[in-house]
Amino acid sequence: xxxxxxxxxxxxxxxxxxxxxxxxxxxxxxxxxxxxxxxxxxxxxxxxxxxxxxxxxxxxxxxxxxxxxxxxxxxxxxxxxxxxxxxxxxxxxxxxxxxxxxxxxxxxxxxxxxxxxxxxxxxxxxxxxxxxxxxxxxxxxxxxxxxxxxxxxxxxxxxxxxxxxxxxxxxxxxxxxxxxxxxx
Length: 184
Prior knowledge:
about 180 residues; mainly alpha
């Protein structure tokens, strides 16, 4: 299933543009109101679930602006809600330099544009899911190294921090350390 199926009229009728300068405060909210979408179309992260996820919300052109420009696609189609999906920052950055295969022809009708949009969304979603798997594997390998460094150089306890600061102050008071000067 693709997210456009849940848009008004199955995402196959122009719905207009969203406006504003901020996704989380303006155009993203307008988009949510018009489409009832609240999740990343690629990975399913729910922007209404937590503040941390909310902060990652972006709005993605499915048929990229560069592809629309290369094909001479109408700005009305390019900027319409039906050519956009909610995406978390990670998914929006993965594979965001989409170039259509050579067999893709310039859509001459709105229906052909929607067919292209659906094809691109399906291809990108698959590529983004593969990228997520690759990133997870990398992170899991890296996590061992990060945990090693964390255990080798653990964060001092609050008591240890207090002791270190007291010792530094005593050394400074005794003239053994010069006070640090702010960078000029």
